């Protein structure tokens, strides 16, 4: 159908959204632009308009008021840039689910097509912005938000499978958003551990056009499945087509890393860091890879940059300080290394950081040949571990610790540590091989193998007892026993999953009970924090949601409780998709 | 970054640094200029006042500045090469027309030029919206200079291509421009005058749009529905 009309700027083709009653925040360091935007918004009828001239000012306002619309310039002079303001606002939950974030920039932004940012604005707008353009973009984003609102809610509730089904239902009704819906569906399927189905969606999209995100998505799936060569080729093909698609660089570096090709990985990371230097995780990877290769100047530069950009970012990481301390150790400047480690403990605090700083201290002394001090660090570590009040660190830290303790000549503490790791991961054969290797290096091969076997038995027996109670219909006892098992093995995924499964069975048989449901959610959130993207997690969440609507608030609270108690989950364990 | 680009950068790293940082500043100034002019023009009820015409002329000049800046920036960022942040996505033609009209509206009204649009209401096409809007707005600003009093933007699906046309009722393009067609090579021939940059930019944008071994193109014609110059952008 063709139409012929003379355009008038007042035409809105939407369902008549009332932009007058919304709360607006304008963030721009240029006063003239702020005034212009305010004028445009007033012409749309807006009454509540706040302004900020810097990222810091914006954060203060954002924490006081829940804005419906944020217009934020990407370049804000010194301090945070627009992307960092957005990230912090999202991570600190300062926005409503319905809030619209428009990123304004002077030129076509590389960020918009990089595919790397975890937190994306709803749209990018290029200056100059006329009123008509602003209205069109606001309406467009609003309509898209409507299309995605139920999906976003299910996503927030971590009911990934239902959210993926909702995406599929919407595709037919919204041809304009079909591609975005499919992209979201694939992301959700990955989160639900349904990699094969996610792959089907990516393939389907690629039939239509060579979208970079779909090619990268397939690459990630191949990589997770261990087909590293195929993954490498896919990432390289994306880069050949689009040298700004930074996500492909990061993934390519990861695939080289997994192939044990540290030098190739290092090359790619250097290129990526040159293209887009302001990413904390990227600079961290570059520093750690350079350290592995003994390239001290690059490692130092990367870790320093990492600290510098982390200063204004919620992604600030202690790893940069620990890495830089190692660098100083390699340069025989142990004094500076110790100063950095103290700064890290002071800035980040918490048991995890204290332990990891102590490990690094031991390593620095050990590598500089000061064996007496290294041994002293080992003894101090042992004392920390003996203190039961402290949280046990994550698996990776435990292995590092055991390695160091053996190296400096401590024996009992690392053995206990490795037993603890084994009990909590009794069916993870890859990890148990690593544990065995640490025993091998400590010249305890046979003894180690025996210890691993015992620890595995112990965990299996604990679990089997719970399952047996459940299968013989003693549900209340089974639930109770699993609580005991969880206390003994707080990080054992199998035990956590079965514990949730037994509670859900009880709810299905005896009817819904709020307290038990919340307990199951808490357990599942804990698993999701340790190891995101598990198939069983998604399935159990779906079963729970069928019993009664899971409130996102409960889920979020459980997740943040976990993080508050245990510190943020290290990113290296995450299989994220964008 | 490949060898060639890094050599280029090494040639004058200061220039590149200043370019990148100054652009934001220039854009802010232009935004304030054009925004303020548009607000002033829309507040003026009577277009009979002598300063109204002068403001309209200033707005036209500001738009030209902005066009040139957009194009230079895109070229600086290697538009047409794998290094450019090219971002195709499915877009509604209704919204595309709305966005182009939203940018051109005040300029056209202040110059007393009637603007007509004709497009398939429900069509969706995959394209890089920012780049295509840049090309169309530039074509409209160019037509403002040559038209008598009418400009027409039409979009139509033609087989495997989307055809976007900007037409006016002026005297049309000079023969030498039509003959050499609107290739990038031809654009170089016009480097001595103002049409070179715009044509070159537009043809690079067209070429970036590829689908199943086909790519976009631009063309200049005379005639069309209004009998004047026509700028044509075809996208696969």
Q: Care to describe what's here?
A:
With 578 residues, chain A is mainly alpha-helical. Helices cover 67% and strands 5% of the residues of chain A. Chain A has a five-stranded parallel sheet with strand order 3-2-4-5-6, sandwiched between helices. The relative contact order of chain A is 0.06. With 236 residues, chain B is of the alpha+beta class. Chain B is built from eight helices and nine strands. Chain B has a single domain, classed as Histidine kinase-like ATPase, C-terminal domain (Heat Shock Protein 90), CATH 3.30.565.10. The longest helix of chain B has 31 residues, at 13-43. The chains are: A mainly alpha (578), B alpha+beta (236). At the A-B interface, strand 1, helix 1, helix 4, helix 5 and helix 12 of A face helix 2, helix 3, strand 1, helix 4 and strand 2 of B.
The secondary structure category of chain A is mainly alpha
**Overall structural domain count of chain B:** 1
The structural class of chain B is alpha+beta
Please report the two chains with the greatest interface, counting residues with C-beta closer than 8 angstroms to the partner's C-beta. Answer: A-B, 50 and 58 residues
Helical percentage of chain A: 55-70%
Main beta sheet of chain B: strand number and arrangement? Answer: 5 strands, mixed
**Number of discrete helical segments of chain B:** 8
- Radius of gyration of chain A over all CA atoms, rounded: 26 Å
**Arithmetic mean pLDDT of chain A:** 86
Organism (chain B): Duganella dendranthematis
Pfam family, one (chain B): HATPase_c
Keywords (chain B): ATP-binding, Kinase, Nucleotide-binding, Transferase, Two-component regulatory system
Protein name (chain B): histidine kinase
């Amino acid at each position: 159908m063709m139409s012929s009309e003379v355009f008038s700027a007042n035409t809105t083709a939407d369902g008549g959204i009332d932009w007058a009653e919304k709360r607006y925040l304008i963030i721009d360091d240029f006063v003239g632009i702020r005034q212009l935007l305010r004028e445009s918004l007033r012409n749309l009828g807006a009454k509540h308009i706040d302004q900020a001239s810097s990222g810091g000012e914006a954060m203060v306002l954002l924490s006081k008021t829940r804005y419906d619309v944020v217009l934020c310039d990407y370049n804000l002079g010194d301090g945070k840039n627009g992307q960092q303001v957005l990230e912090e606002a999202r991570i600190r939950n300062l926005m409503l689910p319905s809030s619209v974030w428009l990123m304004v920039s002077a030129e076509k932004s590389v960020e918009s097509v990089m595919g790397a940012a975890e937190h994306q604005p709803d749209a990018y707008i290029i200056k100059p912005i006329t009123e008509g353009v602003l209205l069109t973009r606001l309406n467009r984003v609003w309509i898209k938000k409507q299309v995605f609102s139920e999906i976003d809610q299910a996503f927030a509730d971590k009911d990934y499978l239902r959210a993926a089904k909702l995406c599929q239902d919407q595709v037919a009704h919204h041809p304009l958003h079909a591609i975005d819906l499919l992209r979201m569906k694939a992301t959700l399927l990955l989160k639900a551990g349904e990699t094969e189905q996610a792959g089907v969606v990516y393939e389907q999209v690629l039939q239509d056009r060579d979208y970079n995100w779909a090619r990268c998505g397939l690459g990630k799936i191949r990589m997770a499945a261990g087909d590293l060569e195929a993954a490498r080729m896919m990432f390289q093909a994306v880069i050949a087509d689009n040298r700004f698609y930074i996500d492909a660089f990061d993934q390519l570096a990861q695939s080289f890393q997994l192939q044990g090709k540290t030098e190739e990985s290092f090359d790619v990371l250097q290129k990526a860091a040159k293209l887009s230097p302001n990413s904390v995780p990227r600079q961290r990877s570059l520093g750690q890879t350079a350290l592995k290769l003994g390239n001290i100047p690059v490692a130092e530069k990367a870790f320093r940059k990492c600290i510098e950009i982390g200063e204004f970012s919620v992604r600030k990481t202690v790893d940069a300080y620990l890495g830089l301390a190692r660098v100083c150790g390699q340069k025989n400047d142990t004094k500076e290394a110790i100063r950095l480690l103290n700064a890290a403990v002071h800035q980040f605090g918490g048991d995890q950081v204290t332990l990891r700083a102590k490990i690094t201290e031991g390593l620095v002394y050990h590598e500089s040949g000061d064996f007496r001090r290294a041994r002293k660090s080992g003894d101090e570590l042992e004392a920390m571990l003996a203190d039961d009040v402290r949280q046990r660190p994550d698996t990776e830290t435990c292995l590092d610790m055991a390695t160091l303790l053996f190296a400096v000549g401590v024996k009992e503490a690392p053995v206990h540590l490795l037993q603890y790791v084994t009990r909590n991961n009794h069916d993870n054969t890859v990890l148990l091989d690593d544990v065995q290797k640490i025993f091998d290096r400590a010249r305890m091969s046979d003894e180690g193998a025996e210890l691993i076997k015992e620890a595995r038995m112990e965990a299996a027996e604990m679990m089997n007892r719970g399952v047996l109670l459940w299968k013989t219909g003693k549900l209340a006892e089974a639930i109770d026993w699993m609580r005991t098992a969880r206390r003994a093995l707080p990080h054992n995924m199998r035990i956590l999953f079965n514990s949730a499964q037994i509670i859900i069975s009880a709810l299905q048989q005896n009817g819904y009970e709020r307290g038990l449901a919340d307990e199951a959610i808490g357990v599942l959130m804990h698993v999701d924090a340790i190891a995101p993207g598990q198939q069983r997690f998604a399935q159990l969440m779906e079963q729970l949601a069928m019993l009664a609507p899971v409130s996102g608030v409960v889920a979020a609270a459980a997740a943040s409780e976990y993080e508050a108690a245990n510190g943020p989950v290290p990113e290296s364990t995450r299989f994220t998709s964008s | 970054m490949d060898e060639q680009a890094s050599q280029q950068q090494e040639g004058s790293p200061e220039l590149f640094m200043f370019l990148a940082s100054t652009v934001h500043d220039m854009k802010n100034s232009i935004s304030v200029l054009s925004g303020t002019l548009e607000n002033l023009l829309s507040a003026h009820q009577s277009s009979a006042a002598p300063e109204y015409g002068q403001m309209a002329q200033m707005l036209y000049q500001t738009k030209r500045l902005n066009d040139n800046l957009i194009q230079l920036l895109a070229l600086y960022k290697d538009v047409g090469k794998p290094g450019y942040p090219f971002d195709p996505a499915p877009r509604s033609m209704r919204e595309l027309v709305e966005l182009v009209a939203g940018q051109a509206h005040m300029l056209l009204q202040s110059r007393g030029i009637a603007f007509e649009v004709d497009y398939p209401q429900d069509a969706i096409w995959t394209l890089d919206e920012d780049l295509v809007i840049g090309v169309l707005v530039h074509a409209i600003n160019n037509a403002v200079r040559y038209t008598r009093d009418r400009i027409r933007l039409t979009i139509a699906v033609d087989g495997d291509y989307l055809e976007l046309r900007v037409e006016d009722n002026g005297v049309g393009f000079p023969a030498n421009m039509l003959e050499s067609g609107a290739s990038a090579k031809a654009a170089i021939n016009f480097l001595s005058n103002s049409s070179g940059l715009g044509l070159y930019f537009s043809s690079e944008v067209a070429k970036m749009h590829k689908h199943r071994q086909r790519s976009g193109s631009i063309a200049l014609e005379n005639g069309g529905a209004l009998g004047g110059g026509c700028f044509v952008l075809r996208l696969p």
